[in-house]
Amino acid sequence: MNPHSLAQRALRHPSFVLGSVLLCLVACAALLSLVWTPYALTDIEMARKLLPPSGSHWLGTDALGRDVVSLLLAGARSSILVGVVAVGIGLSIGVALGLLAAAYKGWLEEALMRLTDFSFAFPAILVAILITAVLGPGMVNAILAIGLFNIPVFARITRGSAQAIWTRDYVLAARACGKGRWRITWDHVLPNIAAVLIVQASTQFALAILAEAALSYLGLGTQPPEPSWGRMLSEAQTLLFQAPRLAVFPGVAIAVAVLGLNLVGDGLRDLLDPKLSRQR
Amino acid sequence: MMRFLLRRSLTLLATVLAASAVIFAALDVLPGNIAQVLLGPDASQEAVQALAQQLGLDQPAWQRYTQWLGGLLRFDLGLSHAYGSPVGELILERLSLTLPLALMAMLFTTVLALGAGVYAASRQHRLGDVGVMGLSQLGIAIPNFWFAILLILLFSVHLRWFAAGGFDGWSDGLGAGLKALFLPALSLAVVQAAILARITRSAVLEVLREDFVRTARAKGRSLRGAMWTHALRNAMIPVVTVMGLQFANLVAGTVVIENVFYLPGLGRLIFQSIANRDLIVVRNGVMLLAVMVVAINFVVDLLYAVIDPRLQGRDSA
Q1: What is the rounded distance in angstroms from the CA atom of residue A89 to the CA atom of residue A92?
Q2: Is the pTM for the entire model greater than 0.90?
């Protein structure tokens, strides 16, 4: 596929463009928080608690007098970190297992697939709660829990897509030329399933952000003093009568990040699907 | 059909057994001495040892596992360390909230999703379709616990129509109980309904392109008539499958939502038991949730085979 024409089509795809803009916003917030926030995150000042939005605090302050904008910016950092690492874990281990199953078939494939079947008996939140119950709450354990859940998802989709590639004529030709399973997997299978994996990665990234937020809301994910959108919501819930606005901003931030990822995923699916591109 | 049923039942049994092994293994390596945690840091060594013996912690792991499995079969789940009451009774009591909550959420999901999905399909590429699909995209992006907080903000804080949380049991009457579960069920349902509406729309659109629908239309059936009598029934195959998976997600999602609304259900029991290190309740509660998920998937498999009999043949081949 010509990269130039792909970029042109991407720019004309409304949901991809909207999703990219939203994602850029979140990524910029996360990057900015690494070098600058309006106020220090540890800047606790009870004298200015629950201040309404103003020129000095654009979105007001929380129950400890911390600046909400600063917390939101740093929260983006936590969400992206959890998403990237958790999807990275799922992608690296899951894709390796899926490729292995498709290349070697037989008992290995059967065992891996039964294992993934079994893992679907545990919904994501249950796995995460079980893992954080065993290992204790914290960002690292939340990442581990979400990453572990991602492994069977990627393993299954990789194995399914790779199986289809293994039946193609060009793979048969490569085998006839004496190429080994690993060479074929690396040279032909992996590049041809990359598009499917990229689309799935964007979906899993969005789910990882939602899972991290839920775990942090329950107190099992990111721990203080590291800010998290989920925990901001949990703290805001106790102040619904005094400062309802505190329960709005972190939720909007989560929704913007997830919506951005979902729209980009939908756009990529349209743009990278060769059948669809031929129809256009 | 019998062969299909047998195969699926054996898979169900194997999955449940494997789930029990994983849950036991995971929680058995829980860091910290349970007896020490329960008695507190000031407890004497003798007292800790005596409690450990009473809890059976001095026995080998495999022996404790088989004893637990035996107990599960007899529904003798042991005593909760924190509550001091039988775990079986505790779980049954909490299920009387969690199960109706999940069922109510499933009902809301189905009504919202089928209505929105069929409506969007009937107005493909028109304003109604774009609106419904835009809303569903938004619904998928919203965390259910945030939506729950927004519902509390609107209906409890501002309008004061519903309580912000809590559940007084079913003794106050069915109406009061259902009212207390209305907002929690709605917040659980919205995200799932958004997903299901998109699937319903594409399934209905796919069936609408089939020859038999075109024939029905050529014979004078209105679009709405063809939609309800032909398209929807045939579109139900993928929809039912996803509904099954969603019910499993709803059951698991109650853990979070019960915490938002302070509902004394199974999810909150598990969550509180983790904090109390009440291992025996966590183990049995998580096991029950896993069994429910596996059982729901089993029923979906059977339903799927009933709706599409070709699958039975494929399975036995």
Answers
A1: 5
A2: no
